[in-house]
Amino acid sequence: MQVTRTLARYVVQSKPQQIPEAARHQAVRSMLNWLACTIGGTVHEAAIAARALADKFSGPRNATVLGTDQRLDIFHAAWVNGITSHVFDFDDTHLRTVIHPSPPIAPGLLALSEYMPITGERFIEAFVLGVDVACRIGNAVCPAHYHLGWHSTSTAGVFGAAAAVGKILGLVETQMCWALGLAGTQASGLRENLSTMGKFLHPGHAARDGMTAAFLAQDNFTASERILEAPRGFGHVLSPERNFDEITAGLGERFEILINTYKPYPCGVVLHPAIEGCIQLIKEHGFSPDDIAGVALKVNFLVLEVTGKKRPKIAVDGKFSIYHCVAVAFVDRHVGEGQFTGDRVVDPQVVALADKVSAVADAGVAADEVHIAVRLKDGRELTKHVEHALGSLKRPLSDAHLDDKFRDLAAGILPRGQTDKLIGLCRRLPELKDVSELARAAQVA
Amino acid sequence: MQVTRTLARYVVQSKPQQIPEAARHQAVRSMLNWLACTIGGTVHEAAIAARALADKFSGPRNATVLGTDQRLDIFHAAWVNGITSHVFDFDDTHLRTVIHPSPPIAPGLLALSEYMPITGERFIEAFVLGVDVACRIGNAVCPAHYHLGWHSTSTAGVFGAAAAVGKILGLVETQMCWALGLAGTQASGLRENLSTMGKFLHPGHAARDGMTAAFLAQDNFTASERILEAPRGFGHVLSPERNFDEITAGLGERFEILINTYKPYPCGVVLHPAIEGCIQLIKEHGFSPDDIAGVALKVNFLVLEVTGKKRPKIAVDGKFSIYHCVAVAFVDRHVGEGQFTGDRVVDPQVVALADKVSAVADAGVAADEVHIAVRLKDGRELTKHVEHALGSLKRPLSDAHLDDKFRDLAAGILPRGQTDKLIGLCRRLPELKDVSELARAAQVA
Predict the structure, then answer these.
(1) ipTM reported for the complex, 2 dp
(2) In which residue ranges of chain A is CATH 3.30.1330.120 found?
(3) Lowest-pLDDT choice from A126-140, A170-184, A402-416, B307-321
(4) Which three-class secondary structure state does DSSP give residue A141?
(5) Chain A partners of B219 at a C-beta cutoff of 8 Å?
(6) Per 3-state DSSP, what percentage of chain A is helix, strand, and coil (rounded to 5)?
(7) Cβ of B21 under 8 Å from any chain A Cβ?
(8) Nearest-angstrom CA–CA distance, A117 and A108
(9) Number of CB pairs < 8 Å for A and B?
(10) Whole-angstrom distance, CA of residue A81 vs CA of residue B314
(11) Does domain A3-262+398-441 have CATH number 1.10.510.40?
(12) pTM of the full predicted structure?
């Protein structure tokens, strides 16, 4: 079975008109969400550190660092924008694999558009194919790969980045095999780093390394042509289980980008049902956080596995604590980046309420579902069942909601008029003659 | 058990005078061998492709690309020199783990010396510590890690690069933990690429990514402080077996660089006993290659596992074929890079003789050992037992042999006078006031 070659051939032979309209629309939504997260993320200290390092060692400054006045060479720009787009945990999610597809794949493509002309049509095609490559490889090895400890966003993402950039560079079939071979041999990213800045590095290095793989392959830098399926290839070495049919079945018929999702809250998707339900409860019933005697949640098992941190001490830990999220949702009636600051995670009122929250995993509860029971001090018990959280596949964020999210994230970074122009440009991405226009429109004057 | 922190603390607290004289001498030998391989490797097409890509995107050109007139920013220089030093498979080998220690660790340090002043004493210390970090981590997970399919040169090497560069940058203990955390989350390199140019990329990306990890940590870019031992850290995710005592026991007492070795032939060490024995046999007995009716080898199991390719078709495959190596050793009575060209691997006389070679693995044969039986057409049978191959721990290459190897590799690239000056400088490395002198001395005028 030629897994790598079959995938490479598909990417090389695909034509823009073979991308269905629904996939194009979803690509626009993904790019819009990614641009918003990247621009908003520029204020994060990890993004600032990455920019400072890149600035010292940048080559020819062809490419835009989104939401700043900085320009960098295309590899550093891909690295910085990849890191920055992930810092708020507000990026898109392919729920089946929990891969965040845009952060490893969009940055290289967008930087490349400032190095060589790319039409919107070709950009969208390459992006859709890149997402397909990354998520299909993710499907083949997840959940076993993820459970073992790999952060699939970067380990699978690097293949998507290589395929997308390689498509634009016009690689022939064997070169595309090599690009995947060179991507796979750079696949990395450990979940052990998930509650640290190390996590944010992952899509950055995937974006840059995937682009490196494509450029080297273009210059006939050889690699294995069986990196996915070989006994010592990616599928066997990085995962205890694998199903290569997931990679090769239905190519050109099924597009993974169609099941991409976007978050209403800047934290792991598994927290979203509880946050949404708590905000609804307090708004509907008008009680005060101080009225709460106890909160009992029935949650999906992933909630406790990934976000079971009882008492977060530092900002980044807040996003890995269901207890903090529930408490701060009640206190602030809103969950944005401001609810995950160093001050907010140790706020006495929030901490006291978090201590009253209990959560049990229930095999009958889906990942986008929650059962909440709030006991008030006056004896009342209020319950809420969120069957499908906002932002899930069943209740996707509307285009208008995405535009609002964009405006919220860009506020204070870009002038409102520039933000609206940028949203408009992104909505017209498939028709743009030259995608670099989009990148330049996200530059701070 | 605090594995990562214990290792980080040792590296941070170590003082130059705590490095024993024998380790310093071995560091000089490693650097000499590494410089030679890097200068010689510049003619390889993989090195040329890497230089071309790096040249397009380089930042401030502070650093020397050894054996060329090119200068690159320190990250690109580390990447290019790391790739180039590995292209001939002539680099050093830590036999216990088959890690090639210098290619991932030396390039970043040497490039750094052209960015900030480093004395020879501090350079040697950082290099010895980097080798210790990489090889101890290798010891902890090999051979299981290697057998699974990981190329330990890069997966363990990236930690060594981070530790060495971090030592020079003056990281404090927790920053050094982060540097290791950021290194581990970039650890990659699949053995599936071993017979392709993809292999050569491995020490390049380890050198660059390790340096990136150290620079980010210096700017307080956080990461896991338990990347080695955590349940979803390096030791558990990248290896089915691990023994963390190998990392922490005898720090400052046992130095892995003392068991570093250097190759007399530019191919995997497992091939060396057979090559040496065949050259000795034909020189001692004066027969012609055409006189040979058959050759029977009893070899270590790794020979067939790693170099069992029966009929190499392209240049790079020659280094993964015990059959080609034996045949070409008899025909040419010498094995250098010239015995692994595209022409040589398909030469009719060599191919015909290779077809007469058989090899069986024998559990009683060590990795540096071989039994050779040559049957001549006149009926004579000649035998040779190489108990410990030249270049093995028991029969290390002499300093003079290393100097000769250097001159051979640099011939045609650097003028002889410059080569001799460079060898002299390297031999005085521990006393140099500023190691950048060594880098500049390896530049083509």
Answers:
(1) 0.95
(2) 269-386
(3) B307-321
(4) helix
(5) 49, 52-53
(6) 55, 10, 35
(7) no
(8) 14
(9) 182
(10) 40
(11) no
(12) 0.96
